[in-house]
């Protein structure tokens, strides 16, 4: 009798992929645009105090990509890379606001349009009512 085939090691591969996806997640574009790119906040992020928990002691930080780097050379190389340039291009377009997302769903302000539409509908129904009254008067 020969040796039986061993079972596969990564049965729950989906969980491994899920963990990897959340590990490399960075800040969203709207948070970077509305908060991090403001001049005073940007200055704070670029001149952070030394922190042993962060890569490169927290001294080499790319604000646009929201990532820490080990050395200044790695940060400068990153700034020349296609990934960084693509991120800069994405940041040029304005981020969605809460009001804009609510308008897309139909929850935005009506700016008086609903009131005007209601008045027009009332006028149309009054005219329709008057014409039906006139028909009833001619029939009688």
UniProtKB/TrEMBL annotation:
<dbReference type="Pfam" id="PF12171">
    <property type="entry name" value="zf-C2H2_jaz"/>
</dbReference>
<feature type="region of interest" description="Disordered">
    <location>
        <begin position="1"/>
        <end position="22"/>
    </location>
</feature>
<feature type="domain" description="C2H2-type">
    <location>
        <begin position="62"/>
        <end position="84"/>
    </location>
</feature>
<dbReference type="InterPro" id="IPR013087">
    <property type="entry name" value="Znf_C2H2_type"/>
</dbReference>
<dbReference type="GO" id="GO:0043021">
    <property type="term" value="F:ribonucleoprotein complex binding"/>
</dbReference>
<keyword id="KW-0539">Nucleus</keyword>
<dbReference type="GO" id="GO:0005737">
    <property type="term" value="C:cytoplasm"/>
</dbReference>
<dbReference type="InterPro" id="IPR036236">
    <property type="entry name" value="Znf_C2H2_sf"/>
</dbReference>
<keyword id="KW-0862">Zinc</keyword>
<comment type="similarity">
    <text>Belongs to the ZNF593/BUD20 C2H2-type zinc-finger protein family.</text>
</comment>
<dbReference type="InterPro" id="IPR022755">
    <property type="entry name" value="Znf_C2H2_jaz"/>
</dbReference>
<dbReference type="InterPro" id="IPR051879">
    <property type="entry name" value="C2H2-ZF_Maturation_Protein"/>
</dbReference>
<protein>
    <recommendedName>
        <fullName>C2H2-type domain-containing protein</fullName>
    </recommendedName>
</protein>
<dbReference type="GO" id="GO:0042254">
    <property type="term" value="P:ribosome biogenesis"/>
</dbReference>
<dbReference type="InterPro" id="IPR003604">
    <property type="entry name" value="Matrin/U1-like-C_Znf_C2H2"/>
</dbReference>
<dbReference type="GO" id="GO:0005634">
    <property type="term" value="C:nucleus"/>
</dbReference>
<feature type="compositionally biased region" description="Basic residues">
    <location>
        <begin position="1"/>
        <end position="11"/>
    </location>
</feature>
<keyword id="KW-0690">Ribosome biogenesis</keyword>
<dbReference type="GO" id="GO:0003676">
    <property type="term" value="F:nucleic acid binding"/>
</dbReference>
<keyword id="KW-0479">Metal-binding</keyword>
<keyword id="KW-0863">Zinc-finger</keyword>
<dbReference type="GO" id="GO:0008270">
    <property type="term" value="F:zinc ion binding"/>
</dbReference>
<keyword id="KW-0963">Cytoplasm</keyword>
